Amino acid sequence: MSHPAHADAFEPPRTAQEVSEGIFAFVQPDGSWWINNTGFLVGTRGVLAIDSCATERRTRAFQATIGAVTDQPVRTLVNTHHHGDHTFGNHLFPGATIVGQDGIRAPLLAWGMPRDAPIWTPVDWGRVELEPPFLTFADSVTLWVDDLRCELSYAGTAAHTTNDSWLWVPERRLLFSGDVLFNGGTPFLLQGSIAGALATMDRLAALGAETIVPGHGPVCGPEVIETVRGYLGFVQRTAAAGRAAGLSPLQLARETDLGEYAALLDPERIVGNLHRAYAELDGAAPGALIDLPAAIADMLAYNGGRPLTCHA
Known about the structure:
Layout: E1 17-20, E2 23-26, E3 38-42, E4 47-50, H1 56-69, E5 74-78, H2 84-87, E6 97-101, H3 105-111, E7 135-137, E8 140-145, E9 148-154, E10 165-169, E11 174-182, H4 194-207, E12 211-216, H5 223-244, H6 249-255, H7 269-281, H8 292-302
Parallel strand pairs: 4-5, 5-6, 6-7, 11-12
Antiparallel strand pairs: 1-2, 2-3, 3-4, 8-9, 9-10, 10-11
Helix pairs in contact: 4-5, 5-7, 6-7, 6-8, 7-8
């Protein structure tokens, strides 16, 4: 089975991409497993940062890019969801107020400290201390960078996870989407919901964003919403046909032609997504707990029994 190739290694960026005046994206190629995007907004009295990184090395590189732009401290750190590639570096921002949706704390602490083998290839995590958000919100909260309004909103349902939120800057038509959007990578819904993610695409499209910083992959425009929507529909249709044929998620994944989505990074995620889609076909609510070890084992089997490639 042929999968998109990764380079041998990836280094953290040394510069940030200014996506609007005073607003920067820290885009980490190639956006595959554990290699996320972050960002920051610069004010006259401090910085608002969006997410940390998976490893100490990458988070310190993110901090260095902030320091190259401004000598103002990071006063607020937003977490778009609980996954470690967006939160393991939180503890390196000791002076910041860490903000996230109400549902973040429990799954972040339940996941615990980082681990790689046997699921992923080895990672140098560096020093990690779990530091969940200590200011949480139910539906939305408004953050201000000087006079610039930033709206941090809960997705309203399980999507990528049960606690996704995004940062919308309406004056700039700019969206930091977190992992409800991947650009160039396979969306991953194992801990979320296919149906919920589809509903989330409607909410995102209604914002009217002109520039989007996705959770993984290059900065893009609103066309990424339709690409992700198309993939989610593909997963739903594939799952319905496979369930009717009596195939397991792994059997179905092995028989499925990914077609236009074959070039997306980390195609083994189709297996986890099918596990989630099967659960929803069986009546599971969005975000309901499913057998994660079984789904991950099937992803490894789809990957030829090898650990999943991670260059974090």
